[in-house]
Amino acid sequence: MTKRFSHHIDKKNNQIQASPITTYKLIFKITNSNIVFLPTTPKILAKSFFCRPAEVVAPELVGCLIFKRQQDDKVLWGVIVETEAYSQIEEGCHGYKRRSKSNESLFGEPGILYTYLTYGIHHCVNVVTGQKELANGVLLRSLAIPNEDERIASGPGLLAKRLSLNLSHDSLPLSIENGIWITCKPSNLLKAHLVSTTRIGISKAKDLKWRWYLHSSRSVSKRSQGDRQPSISQAWIPSTSDLL
Fold it and tell me: Minimal CA–CA distance to 124: which of 80, 164, 159?
């Protein structure tokens, strides 16, 4: 089926007026104040992308674009700039020697969301990876959103809050139909420098360098020791050109 969809952009709020789309093959074309989805070139990450170990998927997700349809039917989007990998083979993972009702989604199909509460107040959002029945996932740590405060989604709790993601989204498959999807990284980020370092906020398996972030981004939650924040003039700043 070939269809063409035109969506109005609210430039001030960096939102796209959306309507249902059933294809998984999209490219974006911006004309004046409109964004047009053309179903001609594969752009959305397929399930097969997530059918690999978390430590392989996590760095490849840095630079990818995430889209979330809001309650008013507008679509908010940003660039993933920081991720962490978790696997049941290491003690930092929620699924390490433990399977319960609260972490059941982490053992589910690749490409679904695993959301949970930390400290009883902050939601965290993971994308399940690997294979079913083996706890494996990537924590989305930070997001850079065009035309918004550079720190508005710096950290997993802030990311979930800005995208309005919570426990009701647990086990939800990534798809346009479900209102949240991830696309391939734009060409200008294909060869971007990533920093690999240790994860944050865990007490075990602390030495694993399973956190990755975009070196040139100012939206990273916490930089590796000795890695200075780039100046505004030197930093990569997200913009609508990343949709092309």
Answer: 159
Instruction: Please state, in angstroms and rounded to a whole number, the distance separating the CA atoms of residues 236 and 244.
Output: 16
Q: How is residue 74 written in tokens? A: 């507008």
Q: What pLDDT score does 29 carry?
A: 47
SS3 106: helix
What is the number of other CB atoms lying within 10 angstroms of the CB of residue 181? 23
Residue 166: which residues within 8 A CB-CB, separation 6 or more? 115, 123, 160
At residue 169, the 3 state secondary structure works out as helix
What per-residue confidence (pLDDT) applies to 50?
A: 98
Residue 243 burial by Cβ neighbours in a 10 Å radius (0-12, 13-18, 19+): buried
Instruction: Provide the 10 A C-beta neighbour count for residue 233.
Output: 5
pLDDT in tens, 16-48: 444 333 333 444 444 443 444 444 333 899 999
Angle at Cα 11 formed by Cα 185 and Cα 24, nearest 5°? 40
Distance CA 92, CA 86 (A): 7
Q: pLDDT tens digits for 158-181? A: 999 999 999 999 999 999 999 999
- What pTM did the predictor assign? 0.85
Tell me how long the chain is: 244
- Residue 195 has phi, psi (to 5 degrees) of -100, 130
